[in-house]
């Protein structure tokens, strides 16, 4: 009997010990209030430690200036301040340049960095306003001016802002990223000494605005993705290229140019990035807040643009080592200065005319771009000051 009593006592003791142990481990972070965590939180704040994984797709690599100056820092900040983890598929491994919108709609990736609306001006005609030529302007000023437009801080026509006019029915959540540095003219076959040397050349152009400019100065525009520029220059298929100096090394171009004319700021290639509205709505509110805040802070940060200066210095040094020469537009023969200056003005006017004829408010957004560039410390050709 004593043995049976002792056995019962041991069994009861074991039950109490097990119950006590299990009572300290059943509560997990994010489950105590009965709410789910992660991307299914539908905009509600969540302190859950459950990781939200977002797939990032891009046609460029992390060596691209947009990642070195902005996207790497953006992702690092978001990961540090939230429970988001980014899974990177870069360098065209999942999506090619210019295919970002389709990749989002097809659910191939969650975020595209960057998106290139300038590669599809039929669908996104207003986006190329940043390519209108300006003078005495920095990438800081151009990026902040473009950010104001993308953030929707200004109405363009009929009370609608840029995103409503350009992307209104596409259910996307979009942010601005820094533009490139100003585009310069680079030549692979020696220094032009007059407009006769430039007229008739074939130059790679990134879009419609520089196609207009090219025709104004007698150049044959060749539309090519940046990824094909190295091969085209190496084979002699084109004579030169319009490109930003700080982006040369991203494509191996720093070793190919004999001569570059800078100072005639032939546009700032603009980028955006983002996700579908459905993905955005699925994120907790605290994650959304961090993404919004970090975007604004990095766009306004001087450190973001110091990266451009560092990259430009590096590329100029590399180009000089292979005999390349870079000179300002003010150092060019007078006929080059005059023709380039006239072409810059005519490019604005022709771009406005084409858009207005197509029912796009080109004049209104051009004036907004002009005013924002001046507001942020840049300038435009004198004739454009008087544009009404």
Automatic annotation (TrEMBL):
Residues 1-19 form the signal peptide. GO terms for biological process: transmembrane transport. Residues 25-51 are annotated as: Disordered. Pfam families: DctP (PF03480). Residues 25-49 have a biased composition (Low complexity). Keywords: Signal. It comes from the Bacteria. This is TRAP-type C4-dicarboxylate transport system, substrate-binding protein. It comes from Halalkalibacter alkaliphilus. The lineage of its organism: Bacteria, Bacillati, Bacillota, Bacilli, Bacillales.
């Amino acid at each position: 009997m004593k043995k049976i009593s002792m056995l019962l006592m041991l069994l009861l003791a074991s039950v109490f010990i097990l119950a006590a142990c299990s009572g300290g481990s059943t509560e997990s972070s994010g489950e105590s209030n009965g709410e789910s965590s992660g991307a299914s939180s539908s905009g509600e704040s969540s302190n859950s430690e459950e990781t939200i994984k977002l797939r990032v797709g891009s046609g460029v690599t992390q060596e691209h200036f947009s990642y070195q100056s902005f996207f790497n820092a953006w992702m690092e900040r978001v990961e540090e301040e939230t429970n988001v983890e980014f899974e990177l598929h870069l360098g065209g491994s999942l999506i090619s340049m210019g295919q970002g919108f389709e990749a989002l709609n097809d659910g191939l990736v969650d975020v595209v960095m960057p998106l290139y609306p300038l590669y599809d001006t039929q669908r996104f005609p207003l986006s190329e306003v940043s390519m209108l030529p300006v003078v005495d302007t920095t990438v800081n000023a151009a990026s902040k001016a473009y950010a104001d437009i993308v953030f929707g801080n200004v109405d363009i026509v009929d009370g609608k802002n840029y995103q409503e006019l350009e992307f209104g029915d596409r259910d996307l959540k979009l942010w601005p990223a820094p533009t490139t540095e100003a585009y310069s003219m680079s030549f692979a076959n020696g220094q032009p000494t007059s407009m006769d040397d430039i007229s008739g050349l074939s130059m790679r152009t990134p879009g419609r605005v520089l196609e207009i400019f090219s025709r104004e100065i007698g150049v044959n525009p060749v539309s090519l993705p940046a990824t094909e520029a190295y091969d085209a220059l190496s084979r002699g298929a084109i004579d030169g290229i319009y490109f930003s100096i700080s982006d040369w090394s991203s494509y191996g171009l720093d070793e190919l140019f004999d001569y570059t004319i800078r100072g005639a700021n032939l546009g700032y290639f603009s980028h955006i990035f983002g996700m579908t509205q459905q993905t955005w709505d699925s994120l907790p509110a605290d994650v959304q807040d961090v993404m919004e805040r970090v975007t604004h802070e990095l766009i306004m940060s001087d450190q973001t643009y110091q990266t451009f200066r560092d990259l430009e210095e590096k590329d100029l040094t590399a180009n000089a080592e292979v005999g390349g020469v870079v000179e300002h537009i003010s150092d060019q023969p007078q006929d080059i200065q005059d023709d380039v200056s006239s072409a810059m003005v005519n490019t604005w006017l022709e771009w406005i005319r084409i858009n207005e004829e197509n029912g796009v408010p080109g004049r209104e957004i051009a004036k907004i771009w002009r005013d924002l560039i001046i507001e942020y410390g840049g300038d435009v050709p004198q004739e454009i000051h008087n544009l009404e």
